[in-house]
Amino acid sequence: MDTALDCMPCFMKMAVREARLACPDDIVLQQDIVVEWGKTLAKLDLNDPPPAIARHLAELIRIKTGCGDLYRDDKDEANRCVAALMPGLEARIAQERANDDGDALALALEFAIIGNYIDRGVELEFDLEEEISNVARTISPEVLNSLKGDIFSGAKVLILGDNTGEIVLDKLLVKEFKRMGCDVTFAVRSYPVINDATMEDAVTVGMTRLCRVVESGVDTPGTILERCTPEFLKIMEQADVILSKGLGNFEALDGRWPGIYCAFKVKCKRIAEKTGLDLGTSVFYKTKVDETDDRDGGVPDASSD
Asked: Could you give the number of structural domains in the chain?
């Protein structure tokens, strides 16, 4: 997915917010960062997806301030807050599993998608606990049935993680896939960017004790294929099922890698228009290669450097 003009105000707001986080007491440096970002943004290729653009802002702030993990405190707090909710959620999943007409995987997926609200790259008001308390079955039953049809005992399931806090809810999904006999791998970013989960977060929330966790190699808030390591691309190629969490991963992979299940919240006007859904709606979607993309939806060769 390319970067639209509607993305420009969001990128400028992000620059202001992150400049203030990186150097809260230096207004001159804040202004310098925002002005420099405006110049940089004007030179970038808008055919690239938004996550590919966003990494340039993170790099600029690191160069200007030396601050490499702007949201560390925020990330830790999100993980702690969501972890406190887990006993109740696990009980609800267990009850769902015990019901004759229950669907524990669907409920775990609904919870995990609600977690995608925890995104510091957008400005969207939400009440996480209220959303969880009033969870509704909103995801596409057709896509859910497709997912179930692709799952079998021993299936290699790769989950592309997204944000902190959200990663805690993703553990519910991992547990359901494992109960179905799947071999689960969870992927995190290799470098801090916005509030995306890294290996440090996976260790902190206990994901590494639950399943195999790998780094994708990317320094972007989305799985930009050209920035993945060859080793990670091989893991993607060998997966029987890929479940992509979050809007950034959807933006990076839609039209590039067919058959990926994308689970995320609609969090901006552009995605609302693309999906035909309202802001705040849960999305469960299976990707197709965009035949009109002049880059032909090509997937990088995993054997290349």
From this structure: 2
In a domain, 274, yes or no: yes
Using CA atoms, how far apart are residues 279 and 29, in angstroms rounded to an integer? 35
SS (H, E, C) 72-106: HHHHHHHHHHHHHHHHHHHHHHHHHHHCCCCCHHH
Residue 192, class by beta-carbon neighbours within 10 Å (0-12 exposed, 13-18 middle, 19+ buried)?
buried
User: Of 42, 65, 88, which marks where a domain is finished?
Assistant: 65
Whether 56 and 97 share a structural domain: no
* Domain presence at residue 139: yes
Per the DSSP assignment, residues forming a β-bridge with 285 are 262
Q: What are the backbone angles phi and psi of residue 156, rounded to the nearest 5°?
A: -85, 110
In a domain, 20, yes or no: yes
Q: Which candidate, 202, 173, 203, places its Cα nearest to that of 86?
A: 173
What is the residue whose two structure tokens read 């799952």?
A: 151
**Enclosing domain of residue 187:** 72-286
Nearest in space to 67 (alpha carbons), one of 130, 128, 18, 32: 18
User: Is residue 148 included in any domain, yes or no?
Assistant: yes
Q: Tell me which of 20, 50, 65 is where a domain ends.
A: 65
User: Distance between CA 265 and CA 246 in Å, rounded?
Assistant: 7
Question: What local confidence, expressed as pLDDT, does residue 80 receive?
Answer: 97
Calculate Rg over the CA atoms of the chain.
19
217-266 pLDDT per residue, tens: 999 999 999 999 999 999 999 999 999 999 999 999 988 999 999 999 99
Divide the 305 residues of the chain into consecutive groups of 10 and give the mean pLDDT of each group: 88 95 96 96 92 95 93 96 97 93 94 94 83 88 95 97 98 97 98 96 98 98 97 98 96 93 92 88 83 44 44
Query: What global pTM score does this model have?
Result: 0.92
Same domain, 105 and 167: yes
